[in-house]
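Priority: low. Protein: Pyridoxal phosphate-dependent transferase. Input follows.
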Amino acid sequence: MATVLPAGNTRSVLHSTPFPLVLKSGSGASVTSLDGREYTDFVSDYSAGLYGHSHPVITKAVAEALATGFSLGGVTEKEAQLGEILCNRFQSIEQVRFCNSGTEANTYALGTALAFNGRKKVLVFESGYHGGTLNFAPATVNSLNLPHDFVIGAYNDIESTRSLADERIGAILVEPMQSAGGMRPSSKEFLQFPRETATRVGAVLIFDEVVTSRFHFHGMQGAWGVRPDMTTLGKYLGGGFPFGAFGGRADIMNQFDPEEAGAQCLQHAGTFNNNIFTMTSAVAAADLVTEEALVRLNQLGNRVREQGNKMAQRAGFGGISFTGYGSAIGVHFHGSEESVLLHAFYFYLLRHGITIGRRGFISLNLQHTDAHVDHLIRAIRGFINEYGSL
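Result:
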């Protein structure tokens, strides 16, 4: 693979030494590797695979898309249906446009916000990740980042960030929980801070809910009652196909309407923005995302996190901790053996028939059951018992 693909992949998060786990199929809550081994999948495609693998509802929708034709090159009924679904779910979205990834969604949202108020500066937060071109991990210098005039604040730290926000800020972009940044949920008080700041200085507040929209039927903005001006979405909402969306207040989104904006109308193109497969699958999959289903999934995730931390405390193993929110769990190691333990944990779970994200990423999907979670908790207990003395 590495002879034709740099590092053997085209998605950096999948890089793994000495070699990656190569998969050939998935069904339900399991995946099968190229060498025929089956694993319970707790990666869930880094939260995009909310429905598990080969869900019959989505499989049926794909068959329907094949039967109707694709690459039609015109507006379709399904995209209007999907727009209604998203506007009804997320109160901050009065109008919405589609694209092909969360990266695109955040890129377009920033451009839209800055065009709306004519400013240049963007307030983001350290360790934030809003796509491959909007990565603010403190230990890296991402040469692929877009050349906006970024101001970087401290996540979950109101006082140290307060002085950075003035009338030059055009947009504030924040995740209600930092996913790639280590499953770090914000406090409700912190999330209210950019809302109050944006209102005070005239900036556009953008919530990146690409990941966090799975925690509550109305997103974390609905759970905590903090309403942004714009919201970005992606991942699972496409039903397993490439998807992104950005939307918000009608006066902001009307910049894309020639009847409203005239000569100042913003142009947003994209051959596959409304592709038949995504639109059809997304509309079908929306019926699977109920309030009850998300509550059940969050309860399973809470059990993993709570049991993991309790087991570590009982064993006196301060080198491991579990963070996150609801169905998303981050596994962290501390101390001088941090890197060694993280690798050991990943391979320990593999040996016990479980796959997670190599960086300590666990994401549940709708096909996980109590039995799957019991399996994971037993494996975590075994690891703590074996490695807790290090």
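Residues 56-286 form a domain with the Aspartate Aminotransferase; domain 2 fold (CATH 3.40.640.10). Residues 319 and 335 are 6 Å apart (CA to CA).
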